[in-house]
Specification:
279 residues; alpha+beta; 5-stranded antiparallel β-sheet; globular
Length: 279
């Protein structure tokens, strides 16, 4: 049991932020279980006091996972005071941090996330983990997310039976690409944001939105700015200028709106904007 005093940190806000699907409420109040690869954590929060129930040698992993070395207070203070909506959203969601998550897990979970609710995504991710992952040596029944080799044991029919719908064929192909080395995770982890986007969108089933999510939450390119239906709604309601954008085709609209409204946060746009807007 290790206690730390943390600012700009809220377990519930992080768990509900839509970036992670294996951070789940435990039976105890204000407590969550978190699984990342072979690592398991139980964490509890009381105000700014966060208790990590893990061995001391595991703490550096979780400090990195929660991005504790980054000053999120500075990001929030950098928000343009004239952007009243973003300032209010950032104040409300000030406990959200961009996690440093497992790259393979982010690729598959954000494939699953397409047109799904968070509870449904969590169910599918847990089903895959229980069926193909490894049981973790901790009290209770917890499983790691399956590696490419483990998940490639699933046939297309197996994946369809797990209610993955059209996403099953994407996952099936990506598993084989990863095992064969065509999807090289080590190579991907070394690419900058622009190169990573180009690389990811070259694979079957990975479009721009999923690639941006992988870049932000799996590669920690905090300039990435995924646009889902919720972000589209916010951009349209609070940042759309009918006169300014009247001649812009929809394919370029959101990119231009993000550049115009969030380009001033270059280098940390995802940190200052995306997680706060969705909080």
């Amino acid at each position: 049991m290790i206690q730390k005093t943390l600012t700009s940190f809220d377990l519930k806000q992080i768990a509900d932020s839509g970036q992670c699907f294996r951070m789940l409420p435990a039976e105890e109040a204000n407590t969550y279980t978190v699984i990342s690869g072979p690592h398991f954590l139980k964490a509890a929060q009381d105000g700014q006091t966060v208790t990590f129930f893990c061995e001391p040698e595991e703490l550096p992993f979780w400090e990195r996972y929660f991005d504790l070395d980054t000053d999120y207070d500075a990001f929030r203070k950098a928000i343009n005071p004239r952007d009243a909506y973003l300032k209010q959203a950032a104040d409300f969601g000030q406990g959200v941090r961009i996690l440093r998550q497992d790259l393979w897990e982010m690729i598959i979970t954000f494939i699953i996330s397409q047109q799904q609710t968070i509870p449904s995504i969590r169910r599918r991710v847990e089903d895959l983990s229980h069926a193909y992952g490894s049981r973790l040596p901790v009290p209770g029944t917890f499983y790691s997310f399956p590696s490419p080799e483990q998940l490639s044991a699933a046939s297309l029919e197996d994946l369809l039976a797990m209610k993955l719908g059209y996403r099953a064929k994407y996952i099936y192909r990506l598993c084989r690409d990863a095992v064969a080395g065509r999807l090289d995770l080590a190579h991907l982890s070394k690419l900058d944001y622009t190169a990573a986007m180009e690389y990811l969108t070259g694979f079957y089933g990975i479009g721009k939105k999923v690639a941006n999510c992988v870049c932000l939450f799996g590669l920690h390119h905090i300039d990435a700015f995924p646009v889902d239906t919720w972000i589209e709604k916010i951009l349209n309601e609070h940042y759309y200028d009918a006169e300014k954008y009247k001649d812009l085709p929809k394919a370029r609209l959101y990119d231009q709106m993000i550049t115009d409204s969030f380009g001033c946060y270059k280098g940390y746009a995802g940190a200052v904007s995306y997680t706060h807007l969705r909080a």
